[in-house]
């Protein structure tokens, strides 16, 4: 939901759950609760209450603007919490990933396939378990024998940059464990060094991102093993703090045991306990990558980024880093797709402009036989609709753990050409459209960096003053305010979130301009007046997309 009134939200990070203690009110004020402690937000009918479980400081800020001026609130909030830099141009294209490419040969074959098919790609990602041991923070040389050559070949064939996954976890077999343990760079427990989590039967401890020396150790290792070899972007996965952030673990048993994914409250860091500073953990981890990348490229924080990180967690001010936030390991079903749209709009309300998702969902829904299976027509339809939507997110990212009817590898394919001959042209057309919108994207990101003006814009941001329906519907979380939004200043996006449909209802807001028919349907150039619901044609190849102003201005970035 977009309107949080009535909600009770635990201020605890775990996979797919990254609550941020700030909000904007329809009464013309914004509020920031600057406490990194675990706690709770309660949005009651008569009052709002924020609590911290363990803290020595109460720090909050309130800003105001005329009612309905959400850009004014965002400008003032971002003046406190920080504004985002501008991202590197390559990051605005198509970012490709799957769980997982297992070795150098697979990555080079992938790059060759993109080249041969003339499909543009701007980033290719190496996912987890590419290392010999957790905490090595380097690619396993048995599988990745020549990292520099691989990165150079990918660049030559596709023009794409590369990104590698790293986890904060360190096992005792890692080449770095003894030194990190001796120097106090690992999180601990009250009873001693202890263990804080496990993965696939291996007990691990997370490195302490709140320790400046531990952050430097991490970056020095990444610089040697990746950055200097041509992989300059990092996927800082599992960095929720207090645990690996999963809803299950197995401790070496034969079957998974369901467990509460909340972090362990008594984990000790350089800066305090998980209970008192736990929400700072992902922020400090992002800081580790930011500091290293900035030093390596000799650039200042706040200036344009030339590389970046990707995280599923963050905190107030995460937008100051060259770091994308994605929504975590979602399940592949239609309800999740719908929920992801609303979640993205909530992220926008917090000031997180660098938001993205796993196109198609990450993992299978065990209650749905076809979920995440690339050979099943039901999933192919879901995937195409999800991928369409990511074209109109700040970052267009494809990732997932796919299955198929005949599985011969760790996971099945996830490339644009693997979802059936009839769907490949649709998928490629949206990838191409993403690149056609590059000038529009750059202009929109620049405005966000300069003023805090959001990229994804809930309907209330632009139309609360001109359309009373938007104001009323926002209060009750009507679908016309939770399932459609403005992408930048000119594009109205309404993802299709149900199967087997060829038409879709869209509400076209009343604008404050003088045009009689200000809205133009992208696919037909038909024009419509604002202030009405239209039932629009939306076959599988068309996401409902309207625009204000001329298409030429949009394509040229002349929109502000």
Backbone structural class: alpha/beta
Uncertain spans, ≥5 residues at pLDDT below 50? 252-258
Query: Which superfamily, in CATH terms, is the homologous superfamily of one domain?
Result: Glycosidases
Strand order of the largest sheet: 20-19-18-13-9-8-7-21
Radius of gyration: 23 Å
The chain-level mean pLDDT equals 94
What CATH first level of one domain would be assigned? Alpha Beta
Give the strand content.
Answer: 15-25%
Q: Quote the distance from N terminus to C terminus.
A: 29 Å
Shape: globular
CATH topology of one domain: TIM Barrel
How does CATH name the architecture of one domain?
A: Alpha-Beta Barrel
What's the helical proportion of residues?
A: 25-40%
Number-wise, the strands total 29
């Amino acid at each position: 939901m977009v309107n949080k009134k009535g909600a009770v939200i635990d201020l605890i990070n775990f996979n797919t759950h990254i609550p941020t203690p700030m909000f904007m009110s329809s009464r013309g004020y914004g509020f920031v609760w600057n406490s990194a402690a675990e706690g709770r937000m309660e949005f009651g009918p008569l009052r709002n209450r924020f609590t911290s479980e363990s803290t020595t400081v109460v720090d909050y800020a309130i800003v105001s603007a005329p009612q309905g001026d959400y850009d004014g609130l965002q400008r003032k909030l971002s003046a406190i919490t920080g504004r985002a830099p501008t991202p590197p141009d390559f990051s605005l294209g198509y970012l490709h990933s799957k769980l997982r490419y297992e070795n150098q040969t697979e990555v080079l074959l992938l790059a060759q396939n993109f080249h041969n098919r003339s499909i543009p790609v701007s980033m290719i990602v190496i996912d987890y378990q590419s290392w010999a041991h957790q905490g090595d923070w380097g690619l396993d040389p048995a599988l990745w024998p020549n990292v520099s050559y691989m990165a150079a070949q990918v660049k030559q064939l596709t023009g794409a940059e590369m990104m590698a996954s790293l986890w904060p976890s360190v096992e005792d077999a890692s080449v770095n464990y003894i030194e990190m343990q001796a120097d106090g760079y690992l999180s601990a427990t009250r009873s001693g060094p202890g263990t804080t989590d496990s993965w696939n039967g291996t007990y691990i401890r997370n490195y302490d991102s709140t320790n400046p020396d531990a952050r430097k150790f991490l970056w020095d290792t990444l610089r040697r093993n990746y950055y200097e070899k041509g992989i300059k972007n990092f996927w800082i996965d599992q960095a929720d703090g207090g645990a690996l952030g999963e809803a299950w673990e197995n401790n070496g048993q034969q079957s998974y045991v369901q467990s509460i994914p909340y972090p362990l409250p008594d984990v000790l860091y350089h800066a305090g306990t998980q209970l008192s500073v736990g929400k700072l953990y992902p922020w400090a981890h992002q800081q580790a990558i930011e500091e290293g990348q900035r030093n390596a490229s000799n650039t200042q924080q706040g200036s344009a980024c030339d590389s970046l990180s990707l995280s599923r967690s963050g905190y107030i001010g995460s937008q100051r880093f060259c770091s994308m936030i994605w929504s975590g390991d979602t399940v592949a079903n239609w309800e999740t797709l719908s929920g992801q749209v609303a979640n993205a709009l909530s992220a926008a309300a917090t000031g997180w402009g660098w938001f993205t998702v796993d196109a198609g969902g990450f993992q299978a829904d065990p209650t749905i036989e076809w979920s995440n299976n690339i050979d099943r027509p039901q999933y192919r339809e879901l995937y195409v609709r999800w991928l369409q939507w990511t074209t109109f997110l700040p970052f267009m990212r494809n990732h997932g753990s796919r299955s198929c009817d005949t599985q011969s590898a760790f996971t099945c394919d996830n490339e644009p050409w693997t979802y059936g001959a009839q769907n490949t042209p649709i998928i490629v057309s949206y990838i191409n459209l993403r690149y056609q919108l590059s000038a529009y994207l750059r202009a929109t990101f620049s405005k966000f960096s300069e003023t805090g003006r959001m990229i994804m814009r809930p309907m209330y941001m632009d139309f609360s003053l001109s359309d009373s329906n938007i104001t009323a519907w926002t209060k009750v979380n009507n679908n016309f305010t939770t399932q459609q939004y403005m992408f930048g200043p000119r594009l109205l996006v309404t993802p299709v979130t149900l199967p087997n449909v060829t038409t879709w209802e869209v509400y076209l807001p009343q604008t404050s301009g003088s045009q009689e028919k200000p809205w133009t349907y992208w696919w037909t150039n038909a024009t419509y007046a604002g202030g009405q619901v239209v039932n629009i044609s939306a076959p599988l190849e068309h996401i409902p997309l309207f625009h204000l102003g001329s298409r030429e201005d949009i394509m040229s970035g002349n929109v502000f």
